[in-house]
What we know:
This protein is 76% helix and 0% strand. It is an all-alpha fold. Mean pLDDT is 77; it is low at 1-7 and 65-73.
Amino acid sequence: xxxxxxxxxGAILRASFRTLRANPRLLWFPFITLIxxxxxxxxxxxxxxxxxxxxxxxxxxLGPWTLLFTSExxxxxxxxxxxxxxxxxxxxxLLQLWSLICAVxxxxxxxxxxxxxxxTIRGSTRAATSRLTAIATVAIAQAGVGRLLGKRKQKxxxxxxxxxxxxxxxxxxxxxxxxxxxxxxxxxxxxxxCNGITALRRxxxxxxxxxxxxxxxxxxxGWVWAGFAALAxxxxxxxxxxxxxxxxxxxxxxxxxxxVALFGVVFVRTLDMIYRTALYVFATEGVVxxxxxxxxxxxxxxxxxx
Length: 306
């Protein structure tokens, strides 16, 4: 008996794109994410600046800082460093919180779209904000883990060659493990009424049953990223190859990659969430959403029990 052909990553992309083509308004959610990210970064930068100004003023009573130390309160530069660190962490939490709210809204809208139900951006966002406590818990966890992994990378770079290699490997393993735990947390938050910790556990449990499908989707989206990366460098490479010296053309060649990358982030993020949501629906309900019902995808959606 001939062995069934393995589904190509192109089949994954086509199914996700069909859903997006039928519901182009889904692209608005990643755009809204980017707008909120700008404000979050601005807030964090403002907080760090205020901290440095307070630290530079010896007349300011540090008050609560003394509760954190058994000896003398820290010097001004230490307060500034802690203020910058606190501002950075708060910025990371705000970025994760806003990103998760938009992602949960997108997943909720995608669920309705896959089921053939009417949906609106406002209604999907309202459903996401009703889960704000659980989303905030996951956002804090993601920001905290991201910060710890970032510190590990900094320590790895200060080690010797062998220690650096081992450190980078272990950090990569931890990053992959965290990716696995959180892979389906967004559709879980969009659909199930549970707290943030339970949502993470639920996501990890579902990933164990769908890890092959998750990696197939990751591979498919990797090809999309590669295409956008190649497209982004084309204008600048063309200017170099043709010997173009006009500053206006060179400026356009430099700005074009940014525009392509921006659209690439929005486009790929939307496709990724569509696929994750479809996989969640199948993993929990045993129903293959209509755009993913093609025969070439029958071998993708194989989940060992629910």
